Input
Amino acid sequence: MGRAPAFLICFVALTMGALPVLQGAETVWSGLVIAENVPQPQPIPPELTRIEGSLKKFFGYNQFQVIGQSQKTLKTGQEDWLATSKFFGLHVDARGETKAGYVLNLKLYKEKELLLETDTKLSKRSPLVIKGPQVGGGQLLLVLVVE
Amino acid sequence: MKTFEEKWTAWVDGQLSGRELSEFEASLPDKGAAEAEKAGALKLGELLKRELSARTLKNEEFFSHQLRESIAGLHETAGEQAREVRSMWWTIPRLLWTGVASLAVFLVFSVFVMHEKNPTEESQYLTQILNARVDPVVSPNATVSMFEVKQDRVTVLWTEGLQSLPADYAAK
Output
């Protein structure tokens, strides 16, 4: 075997081995979503495309509109941020990173009133959907996705 | 027109005939000496033919010849086998490069296997809800439950009984 192919194989293998390390910083998208049934539904937001089927199947609505959102790039896994709409606020407090994802504390506020609190391990491969309160004829959903 | 030498050779070989033969013999200065020389040349030719032709092998010589060929064949086979044995032993640089290449292939496959998660290990890569609480004052009858949709890898925290709000709250 010549030396050039051997070096090439080593380079490719080491590069591929290093990929997971290079993928360290990841972005978490968190959104406040109003799900409704309307005669002419708007296209689903791109952040929700990958879970569109599950959303429609489990919540039974045909339109999903983002009323508040936030994108946060996690570097240390200790960051916190807020996704807000006019009346709701979702406070996300990251409390560390594990091999599978991030440990998050989530608090849903209606104005200054705490409605719901949960602790979760958000997987990098698995979105989280929280069913919030009924709002008019629709439903408030909280969605978190590691992008 | 043939030269004298050509005619002489043809005469010795007995290939002259008719008028050509009589003319040539008439041109010979000493026919007796020429006849003697022709007879000598013919004798020499026969001798050479007899001595230089392939000698027929006797039985024992034939078997001996066969044996020698067999032994020679065996030696050649043994030589080839020795060469094959020698080629099975790789040189150290060749072994080193083969080892490096094997290691690289192993690493590549390891990466792919690590990326392709085993279905039995999949559950630990789903989002897990550790706990959930609702404000008992605001929503005293609220309950929470959780489930996973493994097909889409979605985890759902399902609440019931939260205080309903007017449509105005859907504003951005």
